[in-house]
Specification:
This protein has 493 residues and is mainly alpha-helical. It has 20 helices and two strands.
Length: 493
């Protein structure tokens, strides 16, 4: 029998004999989606405040721990996605191997998060363009970029893959050049005087504030890595998932090590953690980005303009990926009867058009709330989405643990898996613990004062009760139970 995975089109049907999700994403697409999804404003801008808070050594430790956690998560996701390559993968896996109610909550949580990210990136794009054209109303740029993102997603999955590939290439080249320039400056080859290692140990460095500071920045560091899980979402549209997904997963660890850890070390060597400019780095002040500062110190006069352009591509990439992730998860929720049936519609090119329309409308509506009432509604929407990435990761780690247990319980041979996570059960257990600690401890300071900061608690943790409401609501209405290991569904469609 011909392997169904070798077909150019997915076997997931929509009720039509013609429309299918199409398998058009190549290895290079998946590899760049995996790494490009993680490189963004979290690294280019937020890294400065992280170094300022935890010191250069604390920042390196935080990024290293988060990188290891993400690598374990991706090996877990890779094992499942290579064997069962379905679109919207981890919500489907959670329904099959843990509990349909949890899969429902994970899916809607991930869709909501991505729809809000689209709105966030539209707002960010308007601020970035003010650097060059301050007199042009920001909403014009937001509408223009929303049209671009919508077009890239509605035309074809290959269009999404190609755009993400080139967006990622720009970011990767920037970081490689940054690391080379930084190393040359450390040894005095470009700057005239050796940067040396003084900044790494000056004052309270390298570990300012100790363990609590590392915990305090871990949530921000973790958000810098969100987007890596998109490699699992793309499984249903990969040309050869059995081959391409393991290859993309294997590259993640070394790329995280190169692009994140080396970049943070370079910044720590060249910029004092007490430099007040590090705290002023944000989307409206790209000139204070640690990347901009290092380039300027290396004699690159147009560094701020270059970094503004790179950050613009990062924002567009994030919005592009968010639209893709939102539409695919919404489509698969409809396929599984967990969302309205009209969202299952695919056009002849295999694009879930109605899911894209709805995700675009929600993203646009959320963006418009940022323009009224001083953005109060928009701020609450963002806060509600704040924990979504970690909740999705928590779902992945728990699901992989159950996946492997069910696989063995049903007498299956691990050698038949296209990709096997070498770190089971350590990987999913460690990832689960770190995700829970991060979710519960993201605003621990709200509980440590003389009185509990209830407003701070509400702002930080509002996403958690919303997630529990989705989970418990579905569980009560549908009366779902945890899936027994012997009954877990390993159908590869």
């Amino acid at each position: 029998m011909q392997n169904s995975l070798s077909n150019n089109k997915s076997n997931i049907q929509t009720g039509s004999n013609e429309a299918h999700l199409e398998r058009k994403l190549k290895t290079r697409h998946l590899s760049m989606i995996a790494i490009g999804g993680t490189i963004g404003t979290g690294l280019f801008l937020a890294s400065g405040s992280i170094i300022n808070t935890a010191g250069p050594g604390g920042a390196v430790v935080a990024y290293l721990i988060a990188g290891i956690m993400v690598y374990f998560l991706m090996t877990s996701l890779g094992e499942m996605a290579a064997f069962i390559p379905v679109t919207g993968s981890f919500s489907t896996y959670t329904s099959r191997f843990v509990d349909p109610a949890l899969g429902f909550a994970i899916g809607w949580n991930y869709w909501y998060n991505n729809a809000i990210v689209v709105a966030l990136e539209l707002a960010a794009s308007a601020l970035i363009m003010k650097y060059w054209l301050p007199d042009v109303p920001g909403i014009i740029w937001s509408v223009l970029f929303l049209t671009l993102i919508f077009g890239l997603n509605i035309l074809s999955v290959k269009g999404y893959g190609e755009s993400e590939y080139w967006f990622a290439i720009i970011k990767v080249i920037t970081i490689v050049i940054f690391i080379i320039v930084g190393i040359l400056m450390i040894f005095g080859i470009m700057s005239g005087s050796a940067g040396g290692f003084e900044n790494f140990t000056k004052g309270e460095a390298p570990f300012k504030g100790g363990v609590l500071s590392i915990l305090g920045v871990f949530m921000i560091v973790g958000f810098s890595f969100t987007g890596t899980e998109l490699v699992g979402i793309t499984a249903g549209e990969s040309e050869n998932p059995e081959k391409h997904i393991p290859r993309a997963i294997k590259q993640i660890f070394w790329r995280i090590l190169l692009f994140y850890i080396l970049a943070i070390i370079v910044i720590g060597f060249l910029i004092n953690y007490n430099d007040p400019r590090l705290l002023n780095s944000d989307i409206e002040n790209v000139a204070m980005s640690p990347f901009t500062l290092v380039f300027q110190n290396g004699g690159i006069a147009v560094a701020a303009s270059i970094m503004n352009a790179v950050i613009l591509t990062s924002v567009l990439s994030a919005g592009n990926s968010a639209m893709y992730g939102a539409s695919r998860v919404l489509w698969v929720l409809a396929e599984e009867g967990k969302a309205p049936a009209f969202l299952k519609k695919l056009n002849t090119g295999g694009i879930p058009v109605n899911a894209i329309y709805i995700s675009t409308l929600i993203g646009m509506a959320a963006f418009l709330t940022s323009l009224f009432g001083e953005g109060a509604v928009y701020t609450w929407l963002l806060n509600a989405a704040g924990l979504s990435g970690f909740l999705s990761w928590l779902g992945i780690s728990i699901t992989h643990y159950r996946f492997r247990k069910a696989y063995i319980a049903q007498g299956r041979n691990l050698k038949q898996l296209p990709y096997v996570s070498k770190f089971f059960p350590l990987g999913p257990i460690l990832s689960t613990v770190l995700c829970i600690v991060t979710i519960l401890g993201q605003n621990y300071s709200a509980f440590t004062g003389a009185e509990i900061d209830w407003y701070g608690v509400l702002v930080s943790y509002i996403g958690l009760p919303l997630f529990l409401l989705l989970y418990l609501g579905y569980k009560i209405i549908k009366k779902t139970k945890m899936v027994p290991l012997q009954e877990a569904n390993f159908n590869r469609k």
